[in-house]
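One chain given next:
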Amino acid sequence: MEVISIATTVAVPDGAAIAEQLASSLRTEARGCLQHQIEASGQMPLETARADGATYSSMNTRGLFNLLRVANHTAGGAGSWGWSASDGRGSIRRALDFLIPYATGEMKWPYGQVSDDYTQAWVGLAPQLRQAYLLTGNASYEAAIAKLPWPAGQWPLAWQQDVSQLLWPAKLAINMRRGKETVL
């Protein structure tokens, strides 16, 4: 809901001040704010407590990245990627970093998941991993995409044909590293 609220207020005349206030409150004040959703470790306890914790953690991460993209269009939301509260809670980066070892099979998911098939949950993180690479230049995010549990015979074709390649192509990553782009 916050993504829609910010996007709507940014788009309407005289909505910028409201958008700034909404974006600023997302970190510590709003219901469901980052500080209350993400632990210092990056775990999202409201999501990991669910029966399908991997699926919901992945979906929430996608939502957080959508929020990040919209909030970055305001001064109050700029820099949200690197933000965390003084106690370390609320970091979108840490939320993604928390999931990577599970998504790449380095660690077994210790929380609930009704199905033993994590494929959809983990492969769904590919666009966020690309965006993290674009934001940081850290190649380990891009490398993690190949380590996701792609269905047999679908790597790399499934990723190459994903709509995310239109939104965040590898060429954009190269150009951003050269200073030709600065905003996602």
